[in-house]
Design goal:
The structure is a homodimer of 178-residue chains. Chain A is of the alpha+beta class and 178 residues long. Chain A has five helices and twelve strands. In chain A, the strands form three sheets. In chain A, strands 1, 2, 3, 4, 5, 6, 9 and 10 form an eight-stranded antiparallel beta sheet that branches. In chain A, strand 2 and strand 3 form a beta hairpin. Chains A and B meet through strand 4, strand 5, helix 3, strand 11 and strand 12 of A and helix 1, strand 4, strand 5, helix 3 and strand 11 of B.
Chain lengths: 178, 178
């Protein structure tokens, strides 16, 4: 797959519909993947994302310390791996090796992209004011990558208790909203 | 439709997949509806929601002042009204009247429920620390209502430029995630 640079102004169109993302983080030789659904856009450009990363997760310390991560958006073909990443801890498991995911070097941050995901968003933590109380991080997206061949990506949307909604058809309306 | 009370512990299952919501707010005789996609769960129970309400919106002042709103989740049958609410300002238009939506009294807050929506979440603003910088409000859900007859709700998920993704089929996995 040949990855294309995506203009930062277009990132909201990918995250706003609420897909599950895989968050990669790294510190020295530690490297991890976390499954996450609690995120929202906060600004169009530069794109800001707010997200909850529980302090019970191994990724919490990595991201809090290094202030870097990558948000990778998987499609339904990867659902088994998405679930596996969510059901295990990086404290015990090297998730890249165990679940056969491929790390690729990022351009602006240390944590790797996940090659199998159709979108990769390189992020820096820019605000930690709500981390102590809510585990809420604000990320700025520094660089965005997309697989231009993926025309109708079937993203997965978590509904709890093992159930995921798969992205259905799209409708074009006369909306003037950005 | 007979609305059923939904346990607060189940709210995350509705908002986590990223549906567009219609936000109702009210102050004295002013009443408004706003279309919103920038929201995320922040805590399971009591359910906390973080959301961005732009200060360019008429709803911003209403919600900032009264500290109350209702999040109503529409399905695809309402998409035209969702778009209409997003394309107009409550400063000029009474959206309930103009778009033929039905206000119902809420139980815990002043703003009305929208009868046509299959879910209604009555909210109080509990944290405004990030409002000045990011227009970011933290809401606690006080009371949740659902139409128990709506089995496979086709929620709508905004992708920008007039395009909406409609909720597709669901898959059950072996995930142990809550």
């Amino acid at each position: 797959m040949k990855r294309k640079s995506l203009p930062l102004s277009q990132v909201y169109r990918l995250l706003e519909p609420g897909p599950v993302v895989l968050v990669t983080s790294a510190r020295k030789k530690q490297i991890n993947i976390m499954t996450m659904s609690w995120h929202t856009m906060m600004e169009f450009e530069p794109p800001l994302i707010g997200c909850v990363i529980s302090n019970r997760n191994y990724s919490f310390e990595l991201i809090k310390t290094t202030k870097e991560c990558v948000l990778n958006i998987p499609t339904v073909e990867l659902l088994d791996k998405v679930v596996a990443c969510g059901n295990t801890s990086g404290k015990k498991v090297d998730k890249f090796k165990t679940f056969h995911l491929t790390p690729l070097p990022a351009s602006r941050v240390a944590p790797p992209l996940i090659a199998e995901c159709y979108v990769n968003l390189e992020c820096r933590v820019v605000d930690t004011k709500l981390v102590a109380k809510y585990n809420f991080f604000i990320l700025e997206i520094l660089k965005a990558w997309i697989d231009p061949k993926k025309k109708k990506p079937k993203t997965v949307h978590h509904q709890g208790r093992g159930v995921f909604m798969i992205a259905g058809k799209t409708l074009k309306t006369s909306s003037h909203m950005k």
